[in-house]
Specification:
4 copies of one chain form a homotetramer.
Chain A: E1 2-4, E2 13-25, E3 31-43, E4 49-55, H1 60-71, H2 89-96, H3 101-112, H4 145-162, E5 166-173, H5 192-200, H6 208-218, E6 222-225, H7 234-243, E7 247-248, H8 256-269, E8 273-283, H9 286-291, H10 294-305, H11 309-313, H12 330-336, E9 339-346, E10 353-363, E11 369-379, H13 380-398, E12 401-404, E13 410-412, H14 439-453
Parallel strand pairs in A: 4-5, 5-6, 6-7, 8-9
Antiparallel strand pairs in A: 1-4, 2-3, 3-12, 8-10, 10-11, 12-13
Enzyme class (chains A, B, C, D): isomerase
Function (chains A, B, C, D): Key enzyme in myo-inositol biosynthesis pathway that catalyzes the conversion of glucose 6-phosphate to 1-myo-inositol 1-phosphate in a NAD-dependent manner. Rate-limiting enzyme in the synthesis of all inositol-containing compounds.
Catalytic activity (chains A, B, C, D): D-glucose 6-phosphate = 1D-myo-inositol 3-phosphate
């Protein structure tokens, strides 16, 4: 589908200078302040149309978002391609059981004409229980990855051709969680060239989601991964950089994890020490079903458990670092961070209504304990679907922003758009850059960017002038 | 008791320049950036001793904090005065049932020699069930407020005299919640002079907590109110300003409200619209018992329900403002903010172990609903007691900070220390200044002050240099 | 409406002899076994039609049940009377927001023709916020109770006349909770004659619900009270006895209380001692709105808090009785039973979706504690509506049962049908008979009656023959 | 240790006749009532001393119970044997961290002299993480099962010899959950003789818990299994029958499962249909640690998930049976019973404080849903330890009870004491007899037995005489 950019077609470019200050540690107790005037240049020409291709369009997230956009057609319009097999979007919406029947009725006729394109299906990467549902697949199994890449690139070009004025295309993986690809074999995932070669030989460790990423990069589309698997192998990021496009990931951050990154940030920031975090989920949609197999769950578990690492590390008073990394006994682990477990289970009877039950056990003053138990009920797809919109809109803006420092050379955003991590559970960041999970910091980064684009300094809640006599 | 400031007795004063930038709205779509170099001057001479007088010392918070300080004596030392009546601190600690018996044993002998001073007791302001417990009171009931004021001032002077080198004294109200004082009568609470006159006539609407504040101001002590009643009538703030001292309040923010200000900030910030917040508490300590009467509960309820107001107001997309303020029908109220209720109940069997049960009902995408239920168990006093330390330490620092703008005139902090609101449920702010309840903003304000004091700019999670190609 | 009894029109009467054994305490440590053959006689002629008149038909419970019956019309048929004012049932169903829109659509046309009869409205007995909704009332306010009684009796007779073959009529109060009637004035509520006289003088303490009960008794209808107020003053029970009809009450037992009577029964039975029970509710339907005023809530609170009394009394090891009833200090109360509180709040945003949050604090082995927190979400009316059916069906059966002991005289069921207490929160029992709240006992009583009616002995899970070698 | 029976040494035997009635299905719609006079004979001579040997004495349950008994010495006395290796009970109690330090201090000196006997340790049956803790084991690994049996029998005989007057000995397995023994090989577990032969050859599928059972049977001791593994292979029950002793199992029923068997019984009994039950647990004691391995967890999971089977089967209206047992698709499973999952996780930071989080999703009237979420915190051992006492006391009584029917032949209780299932999660029953999990039925069976022993009929809550006019 294509998102219509509306009436504003300004040709202008806005330049905004902002004084950017940061601190540089220059000695044991010495910190030097570094100030630099940074100029932000924003291309104000918004695209007439933005194309959005969702991998897994017929899933709950895809069908929900599409129906919502149709329902809000005053703001948004889109077109669809036709395919031969497969469930149309109206039927997918009924299967999802997310939206109210009356709403579904009102968008049914329009959605009935939308049929997803065929996609590769590599059974080795998804749960065995998914095979029966995968009825709209390209032929060749996992033995013709080069052919699939050619087909996907052709589909992308045809999509553009069918929509004149569609300047930018965003591909979002909203499909199933895959198992983690094994990336330990040299010469497969470690560079763009290696990856392209591996596709030619249909290497078994090239996942379907990575293949979509390769197609997107080669066709100049931004690629966003809404599932937790390791789609972004080094070779894919390398390729996107070479092609001058962008990527973002991983895993839509919609519910339990979002709340957790807020609560732990709050607790640790207040000097209260979480000693145990137990997170249980169950859901009955196809996401839950796919995750009921161990390999797929493992990918998800990793993306959900790393979320407190940076907050723990931020407070060495509460969590003193330990010297002995070899000794992984429970006592030492206990000192290094909270016990943290994540469980996801498939319970058909609750459908798309996801249940999250969390317990936070916290050590407080004088060895006391505080126990916080949270029970959260929500339609999973109603939290995830709007994130897709937010991701695309923010990513699109970022493609139009450049900054220059004192060397007066304008640089684009990094290939990896880490600013999108507010909506993503396991933030992908440029290599060597720090991962930030704390949600309020992620949000403040976006807010401060918006301010910088119009020449305003970062938010400073100190407001010293409000505090003085 | 007095907190020993330790060995550092630097005489120096540190000056730190910081560029402070803010935005000024100059037209419908025009904002002008205002930059000013601000110099922060910190008096590095920390007091040799800091005196802390807790009103309600024998309550759970006071006895818990005292025992903790004794137990941590390596860092802290203190002296006590002797009084004739009243339960000693060791017995108070046993009654509180907060700390472990073994810990209590180890501090018992020291605490046994600490006996609270006598205090005024104005029965009209506290619950009827408190009379039996109030066995250490000054004579005169509520008919001799002038005499009480003189006695309290004498006690403060004696306290200072008994501890040479104690430069600063902090008085913290940790006692019972009083009913709200009625402040509608002109000429009673509206100026320092009026208030002092009202004390002379033992005006019935001058509360005990206000009287302590008057004594503190007149003796140059900082006064902090850890309960929710309206202690800080305009006349008391006026008096503190005239005396050049400081105040902060109201109501220690320890548990449920703190969590709420985080969760609602998160939800509203993420574009999710809370439509109902139901907060239930029960506890069995004397705080709960006192709050079981309606007038006292009303004061508490007010301090707990205003906590989401600024967050609701911050997002006019979620909560569109309404024109018709006269029409308070439920439909309109619904549009103006979430339904919000707070219940506190006295349940002796749970003792100091406070139970909070909250439900957040949130409207999400396409009219969907998300329900978050939270059950929180915690020893109330173990959350509140360390706040007293934090409040005193931060307030003490603030008394040593001055800033100057381009006019090069150094100004002290406002009489009302709004920066302490991170620890306080219903932040008292200088008149006309905005109230901020969002916890992360409150914390960032403190963090940015600390940075400014050493010449660093505010935290900016954007870190644009980490995001570039 | 009338419930069609179906095809079975047997004329027979079934006699079933059962040996009933019970124990009689005859000395300090002596118990004598009393065995008696009891003959149960059941009139097998089921009524061709059963009439059901719901007071508060247009409320959530009434409209939900009616729509459900329409939707299940294969089993049930009914007719309606027409009135001039008032919301029809289809509109009431929409207002209730309980059932799915599609279901509502399918029963709309039928329900549109059903309009409730007018009823008296005594504003003094319900919350002030109910006046705007009460738009279908008989004239005369509370000054013409005799006229209202005549009108109600006339309505009942007309109802019967309009439905030939309708042998039995059941009147169920599903309307608002009233405040408790004050019954301390002699000569008003204490006998049937006094009550009838009080109606003639429009005595202010004769409630609307009692007036309906009087009309029902005089017209030979069974009367069931689904709200918690003290409808069944002695004079009303007296009158029903005199008229040879039956009554049952009070207050539909649908959710939180039902669960509580199960959990406390389990805990106390297992030797675990509940020391505190905190029950919080909020809901946004009209029931919640009416209960938001103190007098109406008081009636509800009483019906909900007595529910554990018999279980506490059943285990004197856990809850030793105390001699000194005058001393109501907290320590003693603590010994006499658990701290128990019930809170109900009106939260419009959650509508008919009732939220119950309970905490059970239990003392276990060696002074340990167990904390059980329960969060329960349910459409209130979907739990209550089917209870109305169960109550009527069971009550109807009971009107056809008689038993005889060795004197061979057959006796009917008592005027007060205490067997219906499985569906009622505050069981009304014949004077001097014990109140049983334990839910499993209430259910076993019904099950054992059904068994006795076919000549089977009570359920005995011992099944000794299954335990032997 | 030995439990002292106290002063009552009656020699008498009590005979009590009770009329036992049951129903026999004799045709499609015909049921015949069968009445029989049953005589209960109770040997009133209580044992002077009862010996209790706990396997896993040094674990949390064993040490907690022992300390409690010491603390209640007025009622109970005991002796201990001395061993050479191993942690003494006082140290075990400290490790358990269940009881208050002061209580531990007061029993320390006495417990310090109690040292567990050595036991076999078959590493293949327990989690790998248990090896370091198993420091008090018999030599031979799992290669000398015959030698171990001889040693255990010798220990039992020595225990009896050391305590003159100790008539009865009870052996209770309170040790770790073992993995399930594989019992599919013929000629190993299927008869007493086969089992004894398998021990002679140290067959790898003879578990340690079964070996203890064999020793107990051969020495005439009652054996109770407090863990979930399949200790009671057919050959062991056969052997106990041959030796004239008794067994009971499996798995102490202390918390979450107990509550579940109550809630599901209540819901199904009330016509509400549970469609999903999700049960999550985490705990940090050694039980949790051992269960963190898959094989041990599997045994536990089975004992916890079968608990609703009989209740589901009891209501074919809610759960209609399905014909096609081969088709195990999710749709069909859904029709056959609720989705039911059980998760147990090891979280060291919470220690012995077990956390259970359950969600019950129930379908109610007209397709509505009710969601009940439960959060339960409890010291695991404080719930389990008193069960050991109850089990032994009830089992001891049952060894003194005989009943006779019309053939006047007295029969003992079956080898398998199914009446103990009130305290056991996965009730072991005599072969071919029905399993009852409903907790109130289990309790009523015990209550009715006690009544029968004194000649009273079963409890009948109908109390028809209370219901009549």
């Amino acid at each position: 589908m294509s998102l219509d950019g509306g009436k504003q077609n300004e040709d202008a470019v806005a330049f905004m200078p902002v004084v950017s200050s940061s601190a540089r540690v220059t000695g044991p107790r010495r910190v030097e302040l570094v100030s630099e005037k940074v100029v932000y240049r924003t291309n104000l020409q918004k695209p007439a149309k933005v194309g959005l291709l969702m991998v897994g369009w017929g899933g709950n997230n895809g069908s929900t978002l599409t129906a919502a956009l149709v329902a809000n057609r005053n703001r948004v319009s889109w077109r669809t391609r036709t395919g031969r097999h497969g469930m149309n979007l109206a039927d997918a919406l009924d299967r999802a059981q997310v939206l109210e029947p009356e709403l579904r009725d009102q968008v049914r006729s329009e959605l009935s004409s939308m049929v997803p394109m065929r996609a590769p299906f590599y059974a080795d990467f998804v749960a065995g229980n998914q095979a029966e549902r995968a009825d709209n697949v390209l032929p060749g199994g996992d033995g013709d990855k080069a052919g699939h890449l050619a087909q996907l690139r052709g589909d992308l070009r045809a999509f553009r051709a069918a929509h004149p004025g569609m300047d930018k295309v965003f591909v979002v993986w909203t499909a199933n969680t895959e198992r983690l690809a094994r990336v330990d074999e040299p010469g497969v995932h470690d560079s763009a060239d290696a990856l392209l070669r591996a596709i030619q030989t249909s290497h078994p460790q090239v996942s379907c989601s990575t293949l979509f990423g390769v197609a997107a990069a080669l066709e100049g589309a931004v690629y966003i991964n809404g599932s937790p698997q390791n789609t972004f192998v080094p070779g894919l990021v390398d390729l996107a950089t070479r092609c001058g496009t962008h990527v973002a990931g991983d895993d839509f951050k919609s519910g339990q994890t979002k709340l957790k990154s807020v609560l732990v940030d709050f607790l640790v920031g207040a000097g209260l020490r979480p000693v145990a975090i137990a997170s249980y989920n169950h859901l009955g949609n196809n996401d839950g079903r796919n995750l009921s197999e161990a390999a797929q769950f493992r990918a998800k578990e990793l993306s959900k458990t790393n979320v407190v690492d940076d907050m723990v590390a931020s407070n060495p008073v509460l969590y003193p670092p330990t010297n002995n990394n070899n000794n992984k006994s429970h006592q030492l682990m206990h000192m290094m961070g909270p016990d943290h477990l994540v469980v996801i289970k498939y319970v058909p009877a609750v459908g798309d209504s996801k249940r999250a039950m969390d317990e936070y056990e916290t050590e407080i003053f004088m060895g006391g304990r505080s126990t916080i138990a949270v029970h959260n009920v929500c339609e999973d797809s109603l939290l995830a679907a709007p994130l897709i919109l937010d991701l695309v809109l923010l990513a699109e803006l970022l493609t139009r922003v450049k900054t220059a420092g004192k060397d007066e050379t304008f640089r684009s955003m990094n290939t990896v758009l880490s600013l999108l991590s507010y909506m993503l559970k396991a933030p992908l960041v440029p290599e060597g850059r720090p991962v930030v999970n704390a949600l309020f910091k992620q949000r403040a980064a976006i807010e401060n960017l918006f301010r910088a684009l119009v020449g305003l300094p970062p938010v400073d809640p100190l407001c010293i002038e409000q505090r003085l006599a």
